[in-house]
Structures are given as C-alpha cells and as structure tokens.
Specification:
The structure holds two protein chains of two kinds. By secondary structure, chain A is of the alpha/beta class. Chain A has two domains: 67 residues, Chemotaxis Receptor Methyltransferase Cher, domain 1 (Orthogonal Bundle), CATH 1.10.155; 195 residues, Rossmann fold, CATH 3.40.50.150. In chain A, 44% of the residues lie in helices and 20% in strands. Chain A has a seven-stranded mixed beta sheet with strand order 6-2-1-7-8-10-9. In chain A, helix 3 crosses helix 4. The longest helix of chain A has 22 residues. In chain B, helix 6 runs antiparallel to helix 10, helix 11 packs across helix 18 and helix 13 crosses helix 16. In chain B, a hairpin with a 5-residue loop joins strand 2 and strand 3. In chain B, 59% of the residues lie in helices and 3% in strands. By secondary structure, chain B is mainly alpha-helical. Among the domains of chain B are: 75 residues, Molybdopterin biosynthesis moea protein, domain 2; 197 residues, Hypothetical protein af1432, CATH 1.10.3210.10. Classes of the chains: A alpha/beta, B mainly alpha. At the A-B interface, helix 2 of A face helix 2, helix 3, helix 14, helix 15 and helix 20 of B. Bound molecules: S-adenosylmethionine and fe (ii) ion (2 copies).
C-alpha cells in the first residue's frame, strides 16, 4: 500500500468512559425511558456521545452527567440524550405481510363486530410511532378496507413517541422517497401528493390521526390514551429490558378494550413477558388478543 | 502544496505542477490526475517526486478516517490490534475516495427491502436446536462429505484412497485443483492432479480442504435473493485466507489448512439462519446497521441467539470434526474455546476481513475484539501490517477460484 498515513490518525476520538460512569449514565437512561443498554455497548456510548460532550465543552462523562442532572437546561439536554439512544428507523407499509394478515384477520373482524353493534367507531394506538409512517399506514389500511363507508365512521389513530422531533415530523406528514421503500406503488399514488420537500399524506388520511410526544415509561401519561381496539407497538420493546417490557405491555393491556388486539414487530414476542394475552397465528404474523 | 514521493502517489491525486521526466518532457501537465499506472511509469522514467496538493490529501484522509471510525464504534478504541485494523481500513477507504468513490449516506446504508421474505418458523418456535433439526431432517449431510470425514479421521487413510474418493466428485476435484493452483499455495509448477496435490500439500491437509469445500457445496442452493450470498462468501474466504496466513506466521506445525477451512466456515450458522429465518435474519442485518452494532449483537437482540449457537447444533448433528467445530463455534468468544490460542486465530481473521470490507463498502460494524486471546497467539499487533500485505497478494485470485 502506497499510502502514507499521518500518525495523528487515531481510532479514539471521544473522551473515555469509566465503568462507573457508564453504569451511572446507563441507569439514568433506563430510569428515564426504559431503554436498556447492555455492557457491550460501552464503547458505542463513547462514540455516540463524544460529539455532544465536545459541543458542550464537557471534558469527561462525569461532567456531562452533571449537566444532564443539575443544569438549568437539563430538560433540553435530556431530549438530546434521547435522540442519541433511540433509533427512529421506520417506513410506510413496513412489513407488508404482517399488515395483510392484520387487515384480513383482525381489522375486518373488528369492523364487522362494530357494524353488528351499530357502533361505527374504532380506535387504534400506535405506540412508538417514530415519524408517523406507521399511523398513516394504518389510516390508509382503513381507507382501503372501508371505502366510501368510511364517512360513517369515527376513527381515531393516536400516535405517540418519545421524541418531540419525530412527533413534529409525523404531524407534518411529508416524506422522502426513502420512507416509501416498502410501499406499493398504487398506494403511494393514491394517498400522497407532491409538495415542496417530498410527498405529503392526503388530508383524508391525516384526518384520522393525531400525534403527541409521550414516554411509554410514564404510566400516568399512557392512561390518558383513549381505549383502543388495536394497539400497534412494533420494533420498540426490543430496546427495553424485561421489567420495562412487562410494564409497557401491561399498559397496553389496560388500554385495550375487551377482545382488543396487540401487534408487535416481526421478531418480537410476548413469550416470557405476559400470559394475559391469547397468541393468534395469522398468515405472516403473530397477534395477541386481550382475554 | 508539497512534494509527494513517486512511490507514495495514489490514483486520483491532482498534480499542482507539470510532471516532467529528467530530460524535460512533460508527462502529466499541471492539474492532471494520477492514474493507477503512473507510479510505476514515473519510477521507470526516473521521476522521484511530484508536486501535488497534499492539503486536499490530508482532508481526504480525515474524511476516510471519520467514515471508517463509524465502523469501529462498537469495539474498544484503545485496542492496539484494532488501531492497526483501523489504519489499514482508513487507507483503503482513502484510496477509494481518491478515485471518486462516494460513500453511502446513512439512508442508503439502511435502505433494504425485506418485504418479500418470510420465515419458515415463527419467532416463538424458533430456537437454535429447532431450526437445525428442521434443516437436518430435510436434508442429510452429503454422503461424500461423510466419507471424507471418515477418511480424515481414519488411521488407514492413504493417498490412493483419498484420491479415489475425491475423484468421484468432479466438481470437488476441480475446485480443489483451482485452490491448489491459487496464490494460496503459490507452487512453482502447476498442480495437475489430485494425487499431486496430496503429495505436495499433505494427506490430512487435502482431506480437510475437501471436507470444507464439500460443506460449502451443501449450501449452494440458498437463493441469492435471501441475502447477498456473494458478499457472504467473500467475507468467508477472506477470513479463511487471513486465518491461514496468521497460523503460518505463528510458526510451523500449525496445519494451515485447518485454519483456512475453519475461517471459510466460521459463519456457517448464519447460513442456516438465512434458510430458516430469512425475514428475521435480514431484519437483524438492518438492525445492525441502524444501531451501529455488529451483526452478532443484532442477532442476539432481535432473534435471541446468535449464529454460533446455531453452528454448535449444526456441526454436532453432522458430527463435524472437533478440530474444526471448536474453532468455528468460538470465533466470537475465543476464551470459551478448548484452546483459546487457536480460536483467537479465527477471531482475529474475522476482524481483519471485516476491516478489509469497510474499504470495499460493506456496511457492518466490527464485532468486539478480544485482545487477551490475541496476545496468546504471540504475534505483535504491529505484525498485522505484514499479514495484510500477504493477504493482498493472495486475495483476489484465491477468491476467484471459488466463483
Ligand atoms: C425503530 S422505531 C419504530 C417505529 C415504528 N413503530 C415501526 O415499527 O416502524 C422505535 C421508536 O420507539 C421510540 N421509543 C423508544 N423508547 C420509547 C419510550 N420509552 N417511549 C416512547 N417511545 C419510545 C423511539 O423514539 C423510536 O421512534
Ligand atoms: Fe461470526
Ligand atoms: Fe464473520
């Protein structure tokens, strides 16, 4: 190799974190949002937080910790901490097979039951909705399922997320090409219109949704969500430890109406978390019914 | 602006003065671009240095370092071995940047569609033992491999019996000959028969190679749309080559073929996961990229167990020789192996191939590195530069012997 490498090129760029500092920061994060960081991610912490420490002028993780817990700006700092420990990856129509299964076996059933009761109302909670793709997808599914009958229905899809920045994006409802990577072309055409900066959901799709920032760790807050027929919580509880998973799942249980259904991400299960639900095998997915 | 020595020139560099031969002819005018052939040409003409803008060079190098560092973010930044790997990978990335390569953006790194995939077993039911059983009940380990394994373990094995056994499988014979003629061995004369290969390489050695190659064959049927099989095999072959070079660097009496094959098969558990849980394993790949964790950590987080747990069941049910299985099953945890010093070879080779792949645009973070096990190998971290150099002379041709 003919390249001369400058000796200043070093792998380490961030201040190092001691085991003690790591544990303190990790426990703090856990107590704030239930996200559990295992020991192996210690170095990842250094690299993820390093730039923030530099920006704040903090020379060590202990100093950073003081800012987080004692400074007048600590709430703002906490929000930026959340941004660093969460992943907001999502897309419209994420996991099509699962959605097909949910539409065919669950949505249609709930709708039929509601019709029989003469109650044309339906509520859905999307917990950990990131930038809104999931709630909008659910709104589109309902548009497709109900067609013109939709006018008769009162539908509320509540999307919540820890990150205020994500919630703001969700409210805007404007997406780049990347968000459509898993979306069928006809759906994209039918429910989105070009605007400056991307494609925007149609008013009709947006009208069924509302968004707010909320910490799923906050039991008092989750109680305020309207009772749901369906809870979607996909690709969120993988970031939690068992105790937090149990806590969150029990808040879903409390929120669900009798016979309501919980949908988790593709690889997530309630195995070892809760026995209060009846697992159902759908084509392409698992669903958990409140019993 | 500064002088760059001819041997340090790299493609893409822009010269800031005319480059002239000693007799005054302009070879490359001011503003021209150095191409791959220039260093040799200029040297031949007796040009020892050129004027080039090395300020840009420095910037490029920093950009390369920043890009590369992302892929080292999970591992200990104070590890002397990783420091070597980082320097090497940065060099590769810088070379590519200099040729105009645009590194993938965060969005591109994550974009991948998994929607067409579905798992054979639901997440609730799939544990390592079950998915292996699902596989081994469907298809048995090929007869020819079983016989090779018996041959490898038999005290009565002979050149004659092994040559005959391999000769029954034309595809296998051809692959072995290609390998024997690759730079991996670098024999002075072409090796034209299996018999000759056995004489040159050794009986046990060729049996080991044959068993490894036959095992690869077993997996040939995996549909390429499940996962990028080509990069999977490139990674595997790279790891094999590194493992062989490392074992040779550790002194004689190491049976390099054993390490080559263990390296080649080190991620075999992942193949079973691709076959049985294509959706979940592709999601694990995505999760790895989204969260800047190595694939093995993503498997643990998302699926609940890793490819080494799977290979453990697989190789046990195939009754694979322990001398290979122990290395394969412990390549992420060399300390847990019966002989950590030997497992460290595959562990190191895996890290080195990951480092090379960053330069090739692969998007996965390096797994944890165990410096203590590496120390058992008795090689200084600074010696790895030589291992990389040896690798470069062998890699492309050896890899192409497989495709
Ligand atoms: C990977 S995204 C999943 C988005 C979407 N549900 C999907 O499956 O495509 C995970 C989201 O969970 C949110 N999250 C993580 N911890 C949370 C908490 N304690 N309370 C609320 N939201 C949380 C993150 O902010 C992030 O947007
Ligand atoms: Fe591995
Ligand atoms: Fe590997």
């Amino acid at each position: 190799m003919a390249l001369t490498l400058s000796p200043t090129l070093s792998l380490r760029k961030a201040p190092s974190i001691s085991d003690e500092e790591f544990r303190k920061l990790r426990d703090f994060i856990y107590s704030k949002c239930g996200i559990f960081v295992d020991d192996k991610r210690k170095y990842l912490f250094e690299t993820r937080f390093g730039p923030r420490l530099n920006a704040l002028g903090a020379k060590s993780f202990s100093e950073y910790f003081q800012i987080l817990t004692l400074s007048p700006d600590k709430d703002k700092e906490l929000a930026s901490l959340f941004e660093m420990v969460t992943t907001n990856e999502t897309s419209l129509y994420r996991d099509t097979k699962q959605l097909d299964g949910v539409r065919a076996s669950i949505l249609s059933k709930i709708i039929k039951e509601q019709r029989a009761k003469g109650k044309f109302e339906l509520s859905v909670w999307s917990a950990g909705c990131s930038s809104g793709e999931e709630p909008y997808t659910l709104s589109i599914l309902l548009h497709e399922e109900l067609g013109p009958e939709l006018r008769k229905w009162r539908i509320a899809i509540t999307g919540v997320d820890l990150s205020p920045a994500m919630v703001a994006k969700a409210k805007a409802g404007v997406y780049q090409e990347y968000a459509f990577k898993t979306t069928p072309e006809d759906i994209k055409k039918k429910y989105f219109t070009p605007v400056v900066g991307g494609l925007k959901v149609t008013d009709s799709v947006a009208s069924l949704t509302c968004f707010q920032s909320m910490n799923l760790n906050d039991a008092a807050a989750t109680k305020r969500i309207p009772k749901s027929h369906l809870v979607f919580c996909r690709n969120v509880i993988i970031y939690f430890d068992e105790a937090m998973k149990k806590k969150v799942v029990s808040s879903f249980y409390d929120n669900l109406l009798p016979g309501g259904v919980l949908i988790l991400g593709h690889s997530e299960t309630l195995h070892k978390i809760s026995a209060a639900f009846k697992p159902m095998m759908l084509p392409g997915a698992m669903a958990y019914e409140k019993i | 602006m500064s002088k760059v020595r001819t041997e340090d020139l790299k493609p893409g560099l822009i010269v800031s003065e005319d480059v002239k031969s000693p007799d005054g002819r302009v070879i490359l005018p001011k503003g021209g671009r150095i191409e791959a052939f220039h260093p040799m040409l200029l040297k031949g003409l007796g040009v020892t240095e050129v004027e080039a803008d090395s300020g840009d060079d420095e910037k490029l190098l920093q950009a390369a370092a920043d890009y590369t560092r992302e892929f080292f973010s999970y591992a200990n930044p104070d590890s002397p071995v990783l420091a070597e790997l980082f320097l090497y990978a940065t060099g590769l990335v810088a070379q590519r940047l200099a040729t105009g390569w645009v590194p993938p953006t965060l969005g591109e790194r994550m974009a991948q569609n998994v929607e067409h995939l579905s798992d054979v077993l639901p997440a609730d039911e799939a544990d390592p033992e079950k998915i292996v059983r699902h596989e081994t009940e469907l298809a048995s380990f090929p007869e020819s491999s079983l016989r090779l394994k018996a041959e490898l373990e038999s005290p009565k094995a002979s050149i004659g019996s092994l040559t005959k056994l391999i000769g029954q499988d034309l595809g296998l014979s051809a692959k072995l000959l290609k390998l024997a003629n690759s730079p991996l061995y670098n024999f002075a004369e072409p090796v034209e028969s299996i018999q000759r290969a056995v004489t040159l390489i050794g009986l046990r050695e060729v049996s080991t190679l044959a068993l490894g190659m036959a095992t690869i064959n077993y997996f040939q049927g995996i549909p390429p749309e499940l996962v990028d099989m080509k990069s999977f095999w490139r990674h595997s072959i790279s790891c094999g080559i590194f493992a062989k070079i490392l074992s040779q660097a550790m002194g004689s009496g190491m049976n390099p073929e054993r390490f080559f094959i263990a390296g080649l098969l080190h991620d075999v558990g992942r193949l079973i996961m691709f076959k049985k849980l294509p959706y979940a394993s592709t999601e694990a790949l995505l999760y790895a990229r989204e969260n800047f964790v190595p694939i093995v950590a993503a498997e643990a987080a998302l699926i609940g167990y890793t490819h080494t747990a799977v290979s453990q069941y697989l190789l046990a049910s195939w009754k694979f020789p322990a001398m290979l299985a122990d290395l394969i099953n412990n390549h992420h945890s060399p300390k847990a192996a019966p002989d950590p010093r030997l497992a460290a070879i595959i562990h190191t080779a895996d890290a080195m191939s990951n480092a090379v792949e960053i330069g090739a645009g692969r998007l996965y973070v390096l797994p944890d590195f165990d410096d203590e096990s590496f120390a058992l190998m008795g090689l200084p971290a600074s010696g790895l530069a030589k291992v990389f150099a040896d690798y470069e002379t062998q890699a492309e041709q050896t890899i192409s012997a497989f495709f």
